[in-house]
Amino acid sequence: MEYFCYHRDRSGSLALRDELLEAHWSYMDGYAKEMIARGPTLAADGTPTGSVHILDLPTTTAARAFAFDEPGYQAGVYRDVSLRRWRNALGRTMWEFPGGPEDGNRYLVLGLGAGPAVDLEVPSDRGELIAYGPLLSDDGTAWLGTAALLRAPDAEAARAVLTPEGYAEIEVHRWQFGGRS
User: Fold this and answer.
1) Model-wide pTM > 0.90
2) Is residue 141 left, alpha or beta, with left meaning phi > 0 and alpha meaning psi from -120 to 50?
3) What average pLDDT is seen over the chain?
């Protein structure tokens, strides 16, 4: 089962985040085989604002352990965690993205559902998508929104990957490929 996990940084936690970076990476190294995508969200000045991880794990219990045993979470770096079942509509990892890890602007687009499911099919212009899929209830039966990682010229172009009227809210965050260099 695939899961989308987004740890959002607590205000004023950058020094603690930096102090725990090696512990965070070591923890993530233990999930290398399960990882579909990973990386930080960023403020306009490049300061980290959160951490996205998309993984394939055997159970919801394993996903919760992943999210809440993470060293930054345990130390208080994050203000909240969003953990949802997810479906890998592209069927690949971020490392298989043909655009590579560095060229262009990257974004996390997170649409929180409002009503009937939308955007279940991969957009026809899928070339700039790094990861894409629906957010689902714990049992995988109810659509709760959509999460996408993509390359786009700007935040507005990134937002356009989702159908605006299908969501209560759409968030767009700068994002970059994560992990060790």
Assistant:
1) yes
2) alpha
3) 96
